[in-house]
Design goal:
It contains 14 helices and 20 strands. The protein is an alpha+beta fold. Strands 1, 2, 3, 4 and 5 form a 5-stranded mixed β-sheet that branches. Strands 12-14-13-15 form a 4-stranded mixed β-sheet, with no helix packed on it.
Length: 490
């Protein structure tokens, strides 16, 4: 409508008397030669308007549209737009790309664009946009921006024509050629001269893109509409997708770091496959991303990897010989009434994977599954299956905190520990006078891995604390614990 045309020209900064297509005449010619002959008649009859001639026959649009467009001053000096084309070109313009397969031969010259690859390139672009863009609204916005607006035609150094929306920049041009080229654009040469990356391109410009030697990715400034770096919706979408992908990779790295640190400080050892299967995720990256964005907590992961076992180890220990407070809640497979105690070398807590070692006359000593004391012991008959029962019991764990020493550090640590209802058995600290680094060692009693994991997270949040981890102290074994085999001397 006239109103829509007026709005469009206002956006382009043009005046009302610069609107040349309020009245339009379409001329259908027999062949291409007649098209140019008709153009000559029009220009000889009325005065052409400078800068208002487009030859889409010699340089078709990317959607294969062909026609001659010109504007002239008609009777009364009134502007008139004239379109000249063949019948085949007219059908293509009116019916779309499907009509192009109805015609064969090149008697009217339309076979200039009758190459199959050229026919398909525009359709491929539409399909690519639909696949790359996140939703229907984004796709339609891109089509409206990149296809339905006024176009400019610019050339590559090799002479290939690229059809872009009016006002497009060298960066839009780079993305139209290839996504990777757009991501790594660092400069542009337009018509042999260096040009700013937000320079609007004009019809007939020859554009050469300078690409970064080392991949660097797009700039966030390109998405700032006020700076005018990008006009096409497809280029804007590709930049947004690049940053979304980088954010995802950052979340994955953060999640993997959390998982690695938690496994280390809890002394847990599981393969990637075991972790993914237990947590019911498709891949480690998917789990890490969920951790990185906070969809699940690391304490939940620790609890799931070390769940409360099912009641398969029976019967529970009978009080024939009263067990220690730490050993309550343990069950030994097929060995009723055995005295049990927690090994001092590794101090397993509720939720740890454990194993029992049968000692002569002293019952069963319970170790963590990966305890270094048991690593070299080759006496399988003395290993017995042990599992956690269901008694509320506290277990000793030795922790080490690396921190920057400051006034009130020990007070803040003890406040956090006590707020978690965790008892402190002992606490010592050592300070390096040169670096002001502080190492705090403490033994605490927790109800299991879940509480220990939560405690780690809260202590790490204390200002000045760098890291917290669980210490496994493999001390010299006594006569009631397995001994490492001695090396024989020869």
């Amino acid at each position: 409508s006239t109103y829509n045309k007026l709005q469009r020209y206002e956006r382009l900064g043009r005046k009302f008397d610069e609107i040349y297509d309020l009245i339009a005449i379409r001329v259908i010619a027999e062949n291409v030669g007649d098209c140019y002959a008709a153009l000559g008649v029009v220009h000889s009859t009325w005065r052409p308007v400078p800068g208002q001639f487009d030859d889409y026959i010699a340089s078709p649009k990317e959607n294969m549209y062909q026609s001659l467009h010109t504007s002239v001053r008609g009777p009364g000096n009134f502007p008139i737009e004239v379109q000249i084309r063949t019948q085949t070109m007219h059908d293509m313009a009116e019916e779309g790309v499907a009509s192009h397969w109805m015609y064969k031969g090149d008697e009217d010259g339309s076979a200039r664009i009758d190459n199959f690859d050229q026919k398909m390139s525009w359709l491929r672009q539409l399909v690519d946009w639909q696949r790359e863009l996140s939703g229907d609204d984004e796709y339609l916005a891109t089509v409206r921006t990149d296809i339905l607006q006024d176009q400019v035609f610019v050339y590559t150094p090799k002479g290939d024509v690229k059809d872009l929306p009016a006002g497009s920049t060298p960066i839009d041009f780079a993305y139209r050629i290839h996504t990777d080229l757009g991501h790594n654009t660092v400069g542009a040469v337009v018509n042999g001269k260096l040009a700013a990356l937000n320079t609007p391109l004009q019809n007939g410009d020859v554009v050469e893109i300078r690409k970064a030697r080392i991949p660097r990715g797009p700039s966030l400034d390109w998405l700032n509409a006020d700076l005018g770096y990008l006009v096409t919706g497809s280029a804007q979408t590709k930049v947004k997708q690049w940053f979304r992908k980088q954010e995802r990779q950052s979340n994955i790295r953060r999640g993997k770091d959390l998982l690695r640190k938690e496994m280390r400080r809890l002394g847990l050892k599981y393969s990637e496959k075991e972790i993914v299967t237990t947590m019911d995720y498709a891949s480690l990256n998917e789990l890490a991303e969920a951790l990185g964005v906070g969809q699940i907590s690391i304490s939940r992961v620790a609890e799931t990897l070390n769940p409360e076992p099912e009641e398969v180890f029976t019967p529970e220990i009978t009080p024939g010989k009263p067990p220690t407070d730490q050993a309550r809640g343990l069950v030994v497979m097929g060995e009723p009434g055995l005295f049990t105690r927690i090994a001092k070398c590794c101090n397993p807590v509720y939720g740890d994977e454990i194993t029992g070692y049968l000692t002569r006359g002293r019952g069963v000593t319970v170790h963590r599954h990966n305890c270094p004391i048991l690593r070299d012991v080759k006496d399988p008959e003395r290993h017995v299956p042990v599992g956690w029962g269901h008694h509320e019991t506290s277990y000793a764990s030795r922790l080490q905190i690396q921190a920057f020493d400051r006034v009130g550090l020990i007070r803040d640590i003890t406040n956090v520990v006590s707020s978690e209802n965790v008892n402190i058995h002992s606490l010592t600290s050592e300070e390096d006078q040169k670096t002001n680094a502080c190492t705090v060692s403490l033994t605490v009693y927790t109800t299991g891995v879940e509480q220990l994991s939560r405690l780690f997270s809260r202590v790490e949040a204390i200002p000045g604390v760098d890291s917290v981890f669980r210490v496994t102290e493999a001390q010299a074994p006594r006569n009631d614990e397995p001994r490492k085999p001695r090396k024989s001397s020869s």
